[in-house]
């Protein structure tokens, strides 16, 4: 089988460059200009100009427009990527983030001249604290993984402040990879806790590991199998009884808005992924935003500066001697905070609760429609996502990856595959609340078609994708002979 | 509820298919004792036109760089943003995609990152750039951790001229593994090589320097590279890529890892984030690089294609042993930078740097003619410089803000020894008329 | 079932060891390379490095997996396979031959007897559900 459709565009910007072409105009200098060699040490001046493209403005617009068409995005395709909450990104968020008073505001503007921005951050912090049942929120972490790092560092600072030496953090084997990575970065030894057959924490194993040297237990709720951890309150109590803190990875917060709150479940820390639950765009892989919420006993350790309100004036509080320090240069991914704030104000309390209800409904609907055709990793009802296994299909030679590739040909982006690692041939499907029943039905029909093709005509699955700009790519070659930058082919 | 398409009737059909009678039946696993029994206490939902009014009012309280004349720098700069950037990044196919896990349906993002990696490696004089990090400060911190992993050593010599906000971030990141920072003073605005030599030893993983540094001054990078290498340590340089049309690539001055803040390359200042963390290294170090990397390969028909590669370094595979905990990059900001660099092009980037330098030097000359105002440091500077003022910088700044001029950054919160100083940045966007107005206003303010 | 040459000894982490006079050659088993898939990178220590039995000495990577390498015996590395950096696929193509990794000068004779025989390794694979 061959690739279908018109010949794909195959240029890089460097390959449409033509010496002397320009896309940019600058005014003539209106100040006296002396040669750079008189102002700066000559040995610090660039000897050879950087080889950047020489193209026209229209070249650029067409090139990047065409490249964009090689992507699937939420705006164009159903994107059921589990654990990533690929919901609709409202357009009004973009308009608000681009208001000059926000988008063109310098971070070092004196606080007195940035009251609106500080107010937005302060109020967003309050809203996130209410949504999570936490006492305080830092908006500084740039993404979920940085939220994790700050949370774990606060836990470490807390134990230290009490003169306790705890060296281990417990994490379930079903966790996102960032959990152990962030924890190790914070200087802890990571101990893996087993999950039971349904993906819940194996309480026996947890208790076995929960010694006086354990600083924290870190868990995703709902868990990565899409199920609400049934004994989460008991788990938190168990940890607290042993002096350990409890951290909630908030990646799956979209399932529980207004239904339950991490703070009420007993968690001491949780982070938010504004690019998941709160509709800031995923941007092809960031920028994200990963605020972290904490209970009162951890407040002294918050990253600096903390945004404070006194009378009706907002400002930065830098004088926090117990703080863990800073995570990024400035105050947080403010542009993302404007979008998240806009979204929360659009939805209100009732709207947010309906977000989660619909997200849960959609995931259960998909699970029900597909349960006769694929194995279900854990029995339902699920929360906002469901995990299927293609182990039945694998016996016929079709893997989860094959299913994913075939979906691309049928007009859908793929679910997350091979995660969580405890499920064989995992297909993790998160529809989100913003998809309509027609879309869910079309996706289920496609999945059922693939299950049928597995039995009748797997060739079309193995050949997939045939409709994308390229077919399956040679990952082995990419890793064995890394080619990480373009270079001009040797010319005549 | 305009973002929720499912009608009550559709909801009923779906519940019937699932075989339950209400959504509550799907939530049975959430323990009753932890259920929220009241509505969230949030401000009421607003219709779009009310919401816009509300946010416009908040935005109007901020002195942004459109309604004022901005001389602020310290890691974020008011450089020009060519129009196509915003139009192109808002294309939903870029904007609403995610990390290219399925490369066949993500070639647009992968190609733009490959172009970005190429441009950054070229500007920095490095072999390999990654797909980007959160911001300049966290890039620098990750570079320090990488140097520790490469050398197995535990100490760093950190030049005082490195942005104090960055120094705080580095301190946060190296605290986990228990690494040590030793500070090299900058009595004349730049690190003194002899002082650095005394601090470097067998435990030094890297010498860390920024050039132009926080004060705008050019460090003697070549000399620092020799000192670091003689001790078996790496040299990490933080450099703003927008300056490198004019300034020599740090790679050509001996750097092993080069990082920086790429915000100036078409990314909105946006009150300090999201920014663009730039990260590049020599190829011998590629397997220790944090973050995502895009590589070229072929598909099964032999057509060129691009994929995320060398992923075994990363947290989703190596977990606790990963080179970093970073999961995303800042793909959209990297795209802005790629379009920016394509737009200004080979000639334009040189002009942006030359104009910024010329205007900064013009401003410095005029400002230092004001009685009592002088340059704090003698070292050559690029587009940013430190003024010593005869009056409280905070008060001067407040006074000028009332006249629509953001005069600069007072340093008291960041370095008490410089509490009488004002950090002033001048980009290619500032006009002579604006600079002259600033000079006049400052003259009156300190008189 | 993957090939398990009878003249070699094995670890439970799937390394093989071969006695060559006073030296021991080390690699990973056919089973191990099959599990990994296409090997793209092998990281080995330098000649002269001292190994401790059961401790890690390097890593072998495929596109989507990383596996630690464990020393079958204690000793000093006297030779490494210089072809592996550029042609890691040798580990897949010829795991017991050109895909070898190290030659070690053993420091403790007792280590060898602790290793599994081919028969024991085969039994270990079948018992652990491999």
Textual characterization of the structure:
The complex is a heterotrimer of chains A (492), B (447) and C (130). Chain A is built from 16 helices and 13 strands. Chain A has 492 residues and is α/β, with parallel strands linked by helices. In chain A, helix 5 packs parallel to helix 11. The longest helix of chain A has 37 residues. With 447 residues, chain B is an alpha/beta fold. Chain B is globular, with a radius of gyration of 25 Å. Chain C has four helices and nine strands; from the N terminus they run E-E-E-H-E-E-E-E-E-H-E-H-H. Chain C is globular, with a radius of gyration of 13 Å. The model of chain C has no long low-confidence stretch (mean pLDDT 93). The chains are: A alpha/beta (492), B alpha/beta (447), C alpha+beta (130). At the A-B interface, helix 2, helix 3, helix 4, helix 5 and helix 6 of A face helix 1, helix 2, helix 3, helix 4 and helix 5 of B.
Count up the helices of chain C: 4
CATH architecture of the largest domain in chain B: 3-Layer(aba) Sandwich
Order of helices and strands of chain B: HHEHHHEHEHEHEHEEEEEHHEEHEEEH
Question: What's the CATH class label of chain C?
Answer: Mainly Beta
Q: Based on CA inertia axes, which overall geometry of chain C fits?
A: globular
Predict the CATH topology of chain C: OB fold (Dihydrolipoamide Acetyltransferase, E2P)
Here the CATH topology of the largest domain in chain B equals Aspartate Aminotransferase, domain 2
Give a quick account of the main beta sheet of chain C: strands, pairing sense, barrel closure: 6 strands, antiparallel
Number of strands of chain B: 15
Question: Whole-number average pLDDT of chain C?
Answer: 93
CATH class of the largest domain in chain B: Alpha Beta
CATH superfamily heading of chain C: RNA polymerase II/Efflux pump adaptor protein, barrel-sandwich hybrid domain
Q: What is the CA-CA span between the terminal residues of chain C?
A: 9 Å
Essential attributes:
heterotrimer; A: alpha/beta; Aspartate Aminotransferase, domain 2; Aspartate Aminotransferase, domain 1; 16 helices; C: alpha+beta; 3-stranded antiparallel β-sheet
């Amino acid at each position: 089988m061959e690739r279908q459709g018109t010949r794909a565009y195959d240029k890089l910007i460097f390959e449409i460059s033509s010496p002397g072409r320009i896309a940019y105009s600058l005014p003539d200098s209106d100040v006296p200009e002396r040669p750079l060699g008189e102002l700066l040490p000559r040995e610090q001046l660039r000897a050879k100009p950087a080889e950047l493209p020489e193209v026209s403005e229209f070249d650029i617009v067409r090139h990047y427009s065409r490249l964009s068409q090689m992507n699937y995005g939420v705006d164009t395709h159903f994107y059921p990527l589990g654990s990533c909450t690929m919901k609709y990104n409202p357009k009004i968020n973009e308009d608000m983030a681009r208001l000059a008073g926000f988008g063109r505001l310098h971070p070092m503007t004196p606080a007195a001249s940035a009251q609106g921005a500080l107010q937005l951050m302060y109020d967003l912090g309050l809203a996130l604290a209410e949504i999570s049942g936490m006492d305080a929120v830092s908006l500084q972490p740039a993404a979920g993984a940085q939220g994790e790092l700050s949370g774990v560092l606060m836990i470490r600072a807390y134990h230290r402040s009490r003169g306790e030496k705890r060296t281990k953090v417990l994490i379930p084997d079903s966790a996102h990879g960032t959990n152990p990575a962030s924890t190790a970065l914070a200087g802890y030894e990571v101990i893996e806790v087993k999950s039971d057959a349904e993906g819940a924490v194996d309480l026996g194993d947890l208790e076995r590991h929960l010694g006086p040297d354990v600083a924290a237990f870190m868990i995703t709720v709902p868990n990565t199998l899409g199920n609400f951890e049934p004994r989460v309150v008991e788990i938190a109590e168990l940890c607290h009884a042993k002096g350990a803190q409890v951290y909630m990875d908030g990646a799956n917060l979209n399932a529980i808005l207004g239904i339950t709150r991490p703070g009420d479940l007993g968690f001491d820390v949780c982070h938010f992924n504004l690019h998941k639950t709160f509709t800031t765009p995923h941007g092809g892989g960031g920028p994200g935003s990963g605020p972290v919420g904490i209970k009162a006993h951890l407040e002294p350790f918050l990253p600096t500066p903390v945004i404070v309100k006194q009378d009706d004036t907002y400002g930065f509080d830098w004088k926090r001697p117990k703080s863990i320090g800073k995570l990024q240069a400035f105050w947080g991914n403010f542009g993302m905070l404007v979008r998240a704030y806009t979204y929360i104000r659009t939805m209100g309390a009732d709207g947010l609760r309906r977000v989660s209800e619909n997200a849960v409904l959609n995931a259960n609907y998909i699970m029900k429609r597909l349960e006769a055709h694929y194995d279900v990793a854990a029995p339902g009802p699920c929360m906002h996502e469901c995990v299927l296994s293609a182990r039945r299909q694998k016996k016929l030679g079709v893997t989860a990856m094959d299913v994913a590739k075939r979906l691309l040909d049928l007009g859908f982006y793929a679910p997350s595959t091979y995660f969580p690692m405890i499920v064989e041939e995992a297909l993790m499907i998160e529809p989100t609340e913003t998809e309509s029943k027609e879309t869910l039905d079309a996706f289920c029909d496609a999945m059922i078609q693939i299950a049928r093709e597995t039995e009748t005509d797997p060739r079309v699955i193995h050949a997939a994708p045939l409709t994308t700009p390229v077919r399956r790519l040679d990952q082995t070659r990419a890793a064995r002979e890394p080619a990480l930058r373009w270079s001009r082919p040797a010319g005549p | 509820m305009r973002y929720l398409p499912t009608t009550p009737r559709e909801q009923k059909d779906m519940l019937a298919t699932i075989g339950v009678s209400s959504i509550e039946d799907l939530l049975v696993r959430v323990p009753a004792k932890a259920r929220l029994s009241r509505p969230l206490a949030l401000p009421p939902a607003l219709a779009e036109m009310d919401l816009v009014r509300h946010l416009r009012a908040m935005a109007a309280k901020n002195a942004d760089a459109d309604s004022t004349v901005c001389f602020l720098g310290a890691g974020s700069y008011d450089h020009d943003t060519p129009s196509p950037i915003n139009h192109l990044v808002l294309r939903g196919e870029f904007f609403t995609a995610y990390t290219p896990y399925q490369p066949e349906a993500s070639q647009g993002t992968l190609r733009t990152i490959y172009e970005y990696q190429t441009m950054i490696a070229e500007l920095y004089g490095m072999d390999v750039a990654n797909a980007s990090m959160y911001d300049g400060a966290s890039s620098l911190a990750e570079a320090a951790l990488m140097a520790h992993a490469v050398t197995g050593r535990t100490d760093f010599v950190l030049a005082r001229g490195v942005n104090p906000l960055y120094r705080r971030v580095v301190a946060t990141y190296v605290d986990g593994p228990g690494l040590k920072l030793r500070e090299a003073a900058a009595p004349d605005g730049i690190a003194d090589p002899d002082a650095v030599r005394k601090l470097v030893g067998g435990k030094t993983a890297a010498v860390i320097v920024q050039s132009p540094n926080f004060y705008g001054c050019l460090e003697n990078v070549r000399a620092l590279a020799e000192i670091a290498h003689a001790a078996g340590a790496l040299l990490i340089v933080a450099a703003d890529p927008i300056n490198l049309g004019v300034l020599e690539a740090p790679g050509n001055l001996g750097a092993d890892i080069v990082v920086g803040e790429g915000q100036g390359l078409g990314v909105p200042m946006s009150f300090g984030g999201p920014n663009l963390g730039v990260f590049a290294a020599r190829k011998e170090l590629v397997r220790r690089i944090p973050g995502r990397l895009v590589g070229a390969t072929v598909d099964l028909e032999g057509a060129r294609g691009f994929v995320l590669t060398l992923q075994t370094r990363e947290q989703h595979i190596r977990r606790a042993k990963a080179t970093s905990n970073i999961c995303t990059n800042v793909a959209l900001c990297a795209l802005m930078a790629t379009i920016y660099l394509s737009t200004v092009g080979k000639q334009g980037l040189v002009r942006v740097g030359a104009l910024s330098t010329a205007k900064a030097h013009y401003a410095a000359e005029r400002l230092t003619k004001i009685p009592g105002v002088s340059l704090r440091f003698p070292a050559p500077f690029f587009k940013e410089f430190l003024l010593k003022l005869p009056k409280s910088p905070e008060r001067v700044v407040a006074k000028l803000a009332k006249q629509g001029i953001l005069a600069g950054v007072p340093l008291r919160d960041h370095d008490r020894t410089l509490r009488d100083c004002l950090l002033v940045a001048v980009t290619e966007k500032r006009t002579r008329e604006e600079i002259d107005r600033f000079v006049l206003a400052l003259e009156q303010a300190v008189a | 079932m993957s090939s398990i040459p009878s003249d070699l000894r094995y670890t439970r982490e799937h390394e093989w060891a071969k006695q060559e006079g006073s030296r021991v050659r080390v690699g990973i088993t056919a089973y191990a390379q099959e599990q990994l898939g296409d090997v793209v990178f092998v990281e080995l220590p330098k000649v002269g490095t001292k190994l401790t039995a059961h401790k890690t000495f390097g890593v072998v990577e495929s596109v989507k997996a990383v596996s630690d390498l464990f020393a079958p015996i204690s000793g000093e590395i006297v030779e490494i396979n210089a072809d592996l950096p550029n042609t890691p696929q040798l580990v897949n193509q010829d795991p017991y031959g050109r895909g070898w990794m190290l030659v070690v000068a053993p420091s403790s004779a007792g280590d060898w007897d602790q290793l599994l025989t081919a028969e024991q390794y085969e039994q270990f694979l079948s018992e652990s559900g491999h």
